[in-house]
Amino acid sequence: MNPGSFPEPLTADAATGDLPEMARLAANYSTSADGYAEFWSPVIRPVARRMLETLPWDGARRVLDVGTGTGALLPDIQAFAPTAHVVGIDRSAGMLALAARDGVRLALMDAPRLGLRPGAFDVAVMTFVLFHLPDPAAALAELRRVLRPDGGVGVATWAEDPLPAAGTMWDATLDEWGAWDPSPPPARRDNLMDTPEKLAALLVIAGLRPRRVWIEPVEHQWDAARYFGLRTRFGTSKRKLESLDAPKREAFLDRMRERLRELAPPDFLYRAAAVCAVAAR
Ligand SMILES: C[S@@+](CC[C@H](N)C(=O)[O-])C[C@H]1O[C@@H](n2cnc3c(N)ncnc32)[C@H](O)[C@@H]1O
């Protein structure tokens, strides 16, 4: 599968109700997709996998991964449901272009408006996507629509997502150097779902029945080289860097290599927490 397979609308589409900020978010993910796959995905995959372990996989014949991104969870899904048809959808063409995998069908779709038949799936998962959506309860209701009665849903989102000290230093220095974000992402909605109680309430509003909702710790020890990779190849920091002209950017990066070398391992320790939920239709 190549990126050309997924014609990505880069502007809002009034006819379909697409939102300009969601188009921008998708484009942002597309331009960082390889950095995401290499540096960020390994940090969050273990917690998503722990959530997957608790889903009702027995007899699952059709499984949907909403916001599959670069498809990090697809091998795990296929291991849990080896005979199932697996479908991965995402709003970002660049992310999907890295998700191709034997036995999985991929499609460019918007989570709140799935072009999928009602009741078609036995299990649906959505990991680290819900906080991006303007109306998370409506997106969960859309997920419910495509699940069969009694089908299972697994969700993971953020309870706490703080920067390690190295990240705080990096961001402050970028700002001091006059870097700016040419494509600011829409505001996240973590405050609607950052506790088990809040996530359970969203599931209930969407007509789903929470079975278990809990906090999973997320811990990752970065080192200077990999943290440098994350901050230069992924997300807001990558875009801000690109706002500096080439000589200034090189000078900034030299300075950051030096400053990262001066830091100690605790400055690179990422300690976060996810809220996970398993629910039934
Ligand atoms: C943090 S990544 C998570 C990817 C994957 N689930 C994982 O755990 O690695 C968020 C993903 O959600 C996708 N996304 C954001 N808004 C979306 C929407 N409205 N519809 C479908 N996908 C969306 C992004 O394009 C991105 O690939």
Structure, explained:
The protein is α/β, with parallel strands linked by helices. The chain has one domain (3-162, 187-240, 271-280): Rossmann fold (3-Layer(aba) Sandwich), CATH 3.40.50.150. Helix content is 39%, strand content 22%. The chain has 10 helices and 7 strands. Strands 3-2-1-4-5-7-6 form a 7-stranded mixed sheet. Strand 2, helix 4 and strand 3 form a beta-alpha-beta unit. The chain is elongated. The chain starts with 19 loop residues before the first helix and ends with a strand. The chain binds S-adenosylmethionine. Residues 22, 25-26, 29, 41, 44, 48, 67-69, 72-73, 90-92, 95, 110-111, 127-129, 132-133 line the site of S-adenosylmethionine.
* Rg over alpha carbons: 19 Å
Mean pLDDT: 94
Bound molecules: S-adenosylmethionine
**Fraction of residues in helix:** 25-40%
Describe, in short, the structure shown.
By secondary structure, this protein is of the alpha/beta class. It has helices at residues 20-31, 33-52, 74-80, 93-96, 136-145, 165-176, 196-205, 224-233, 235-242, 246-262, and strands at 62-66, 85-90, 104-108, 121-127, 147-160, 209-221, 269-280.
SSE arrangement:
Elements: H1 20-31, H2 33-52, E1 62-66, H3 74-80, E2 85-90, H4 93-96, E3 104-108, E4 121-127, H5 136-145, E5 147-160, H6 165-176, H7 196-205, E6 209-221, H8 224-233, H9 235-242, H10 246-262, E7 269-280
Parallel strand pairs: 1-2, 1-4, 2-3, 4-5
Antiparallel strand pairs: 5-7, 6-7
Helix pairs in contact: 2-8, 8-9
The chain binds S-adenosylmethionine.
Residues 22, 25-26, 29, 41, 44, 48, 67-69, 72-73, 90-92, 95, 110-111, 127-129, 132-133 line the site of S-adenosylmethionine.
